[in-house]
Amino acid sequence: MMGTAVAGPDQGQVRFRIEIAPDGKVAKVEELWSTSEVASKLAWQAIRSLPPLPPTPTGKPLMFEQTISFLPYETGWPPSYKLDCLPEPEPFKNPFAWDGTSAPNVATREHRPPPPEGCPPDSTADTIEEEERELKRQIDQWRWGR
What is the pLDDT of residues 69-99, one digit of tens each? Predict the structure, then answer.
């Protein structure tokens, strides 16, 4: 949407945590990390110039994380919403991090409940052939590699 990026000093990536209010207004934006100040400025400018959003479908606030990339190459496929039924993954906690003053302890992973009924456990495709058809559909739709 913003055009093709070219290699240079303006490239980089910025990761945001964004909260959308039930009425569709951007309630809170938190920059999690950035690879360059220029990319950070450009990303904030892009967020400020977003068009009005529709109300959230559930009537509840919507929170998500998004990476905005200013790079001379494609960084990912279009999103697949097939796994939206899965719960949010736990944030990563480095089990080896220690501040040097408190008692060292090893982080343990909490038990994750199984996926809801009808939700695929860990893959977007049941077979390799299905995954291949989905990638071909996306390539044809977006004309990648042409």
Answer: 887 666 565 555 666 676 666 777 777 777 7
Q: Yes or no: say if 126 and 119 are a contact pair by the CB < 8 Å rule.
A: no
Q: CA separation (Å) from 77 to 47, 55, 90, 102, 139?
A: 21, 26, 23, 43, 9
CB 26 within 8 A of CB 20: yes
User: How many Å separate Cα 46 from the centre of its chain?
Assistant: 16
Question: In terms of residues, how long is the chain?
Answer: 146
Contact indicator for 18, 26 with CB cutoff of 8 Å = yes
Pairing between β-strand 62-70 and β-strand 26-34 as defined by DSSP bridges: unpaired
Rounded Cα distance, 111 and 88, in Å = 13
- Span 26-73, pLDDT tens digits: 999 999 999 888 889 999 999 998 888 888 888 899 998 888 888 766
CATH assignment of 1-74, among 3.30.930.10, 3.30.1150.10, 3.40.350.10, 3.40.50.720: 3.30.1150.10
